[in-house]
Amino acid sequence: MGRKLHLPIAALRLNTVFMATMLLGGAVGAGVGGAAYAAWGWTGACVFGAISAGLALLLSRRSDAH
Hints:
This protein has one helix at about 10-65. By secondary structure, it is mainly alpha-helical. It starts with 8 loop residues before the first helix and ends with a helix. The model has no long low-confidence stretch (mean pLDDT about 90).
């Protein structure tokens, strides 16, 4: 009980960059997904989602290889 976490400042800054990047990526994804829906309806939104998921899978596989 009452333990404090003592993280180095660099780790805290790295976490801030990570969270800000996740927020920015979510906002961009929502904007592009909304634009795809406005232009092409559900088909466009689903295609955008499938392409995004495929890219995420490829990037995760690529980083595992290194």
